Amino acid sequence: MIPVDIPPAFVQEQDFAARQYKGRRDNQEDYYAFADAAELTEAPLETLLLVVGDGLGAHAGGSVASYLAVNAFVRAFHEHPGDASWRLRTALDTANETLGYITERMPSVAPPMGTTMLSVLVSRKEVQWISVGDSPLFLYRRGNLTRLNADHSLTPMLDAQVKAGTMTEDEAAHHPGRHTLQSALMGQPMALIDFAADPIKLLQDDIIIAASDGIFTLSEKALVELLHFGKNTTADKIADAIIFAIRRINFDRQDNTTVGVVKVP
Fold this sequence. Notes:
The chain is of the alpha+beta class. 31% of the residues lie in helices and 24% in strands.
């Protein structure tokens, strides 16, 4: 039994927080959840689980898909024994199967549904993840911003063509298929799954950002500047600042945006 006098490693809003913005969409199709991965540790909030789902707007029930998938993931993570990497993969498969089951059993109520999924485990010592889709996972450390997970949209392929000289930067930036997904949760076999072969070691004051792709309205430079000025404040203020910066740009096709922030205490 955990002694009641052990303080939590992560304090809500101070060390971890999330914010959302609907943007110019009719519905908020992102869904997220924080959970205490207590079964992996001996103290409360020693390891955080953050799951972000971005429902596919081109499919009916995008908001329902992200809600169902995120909740199925969290529930399966808690219910299945094993080490962290096993739990992450089992929970991902369960979330995907849940969407397939509902679509198959209730075709008139639930047309094909889909969502991206980014699931992150963060402790004071390390971070690991599993992801499908284009929702980014960033690590900000001492002035440098690094994307940790793979992008399963067509963006990397187009950027590669720019580097090869077969496409201009402007053509790549405005390509109609730039954000087309190569992999997502839709109740079918997932074409691409990204995960860390080994957990990434963390340092004190590292900042983890888990977001939906609406965050890309901000340039990398703008995001780095926000994190630089926010490194001495709390997670909730960082999340608020990112959402405020996106709202201020006032992009006429702004997508739903979810921003989860974890500061390593």
